User: Fold this.
Amino acid sequence: MEHRTPTTPGPARATMSRRSMLGLSLATASAALLAACSSAPAAAARRIMPTDPAVQAAEQSRPSTGRTVQKALAAAPFTATLDGRAVSTWGYNGAINGPLLRGSVGDRLQVALHNGLKEGTTVHWHGLALANDQDGVQDLTQKAVAAGGDYAYGFRLSHPGTYWYHSHFELQRERALYGPLIVDDPAEAKDWDHEWVVLLDDWMDGVTGTPDDVLAELSKGMGGTMSGGMGGMMGGKYMSMGSTSDFLGGDAGDVRYPLHLFNGRTPSAPDTITARPGDRVRLRIINAAGDTAYRVGAPGTKLTLTHTDGYPVERRDVDAVVLGMGERIDALLTVPAGWTPLMALPEGKTGLALGRISTGSGKEPVPAALPSTLGGTVVDGGQLAAAAAVRLPAKAVTARHTVSLTGSMMAYDWGINGRRFSMESPFDGALEVRQGDRVQIDFVNRTTMWHPMHLHGHTFQVGGTGARKDTVIVRPGQTVSVLLDADNPGQWLYHCHNAYHAAQGMMGVLSYVSGG
Ligand code: C2O
Ligand code: CU
Assistant:
């Protein structure tokens, strides 16, 4: 495999590479799909492309109830109100959280997307093992839906759990183009009284600038941004310096955010549910942020962690749980009498996202009077163990790949194995697997920052008996090995779920091949 090193770092090059990586013009949109021929896999094998019959065969083998759930998503600019001010952003159906999409295992989810934006868009269904041609990666699994255009997504829901959907086009996810997606298991015993879906997001769009402004500044690198002397020591307009977290092993994030949202709301007007003392609440927490891990807890009340990324874990009682960008945690909370604040503290940063449970008595908590830290027993999803029922059976590894996470704040040149991903040659350095392989991927973090690594279309197992996940935190200097069964043919993106790291090229393709 050819390993190319990026040339001439700098603002112009960075802007161009972002364009070329994530938003090819329509004229060149099919180039990547054709690149299968120019970047041929070894030994005359061929790549299993999204339109391959093997992809449809996998879809047909998924459970089916014969029912279809129909929904519509309209992506468009709209004005939200945050902390009393009007904020222009882009979202689905005119709200900061897109609508809840929900079906049961075996149902077909049919989503009619209308693109009311002035640029292309796609929708990615984060965490779902679905048909590759529905995965929503422009220029890899589909062409972007043009401005003003429509697109029909449709696929079977194959596994229960808490998932989400978001635009996969450039930095659109950093606006409000995301929402929750839940797959129910009708056979599940419901040992809770209330369900609370919680979407967390770090927010700057329309307040201090746009996500594109952030990337433009970050891509100059720390060298460029700090050249202003002492003033630069604090970072730039958007770049944050000195956000550190012992939990995450150092540098916690690159970007400063004026607001942190809990279900699209700020702590001045928090989302509030009512319950009776002793009721159990099932939390379904989703971190939709671009550059912020959240530490979530209710001071004085334990959380019983039950699932991560849709899959059950050996239950753990904790004081707080940390979610990297893209991760989900399901937890049970027994409601105390009075008011219970559910806090999400941006790890290594200042600020608060807040929701509340009220039993109709006691004094309403004032956000300023809440504790500024959540301590005690604190874990992340990658530190949990898979429930026995979802543990991968023992099997010899037949394909093994090393994914070195590379780059630095200095040049802001995040990549994989020293290469910044480009959609113009998506299969350079691809991780090749064959259907039926037991695959091991070793994520080796050679940077001084943590990265939440996400794989499309699969749920891997962390380490030997770790949790089943699709997004896992990899700390600086750490190696996280994951196992998966190659049972979903196609071309699947994997990347850091830090929006700005991904935009700079910390991405690659898990590529199914056959023959040869
Ligand atoms: Cu949640 Cu490639 O994305
Ligand atoms: Cu990263």
Remarks:
- The chain is about 10% helix and 40% strand.
- Residues 18-46+389-515 form a domain with the Immunoglobulin-like fold (CATH 2.60.40.420).
- The pocket of copper (II) ion (ligand 2) is lined by residues 414, 451, 496, 498, 501, 506 (CB under 6 Å).
- The first strand starts at residue 46 and ends at 47.
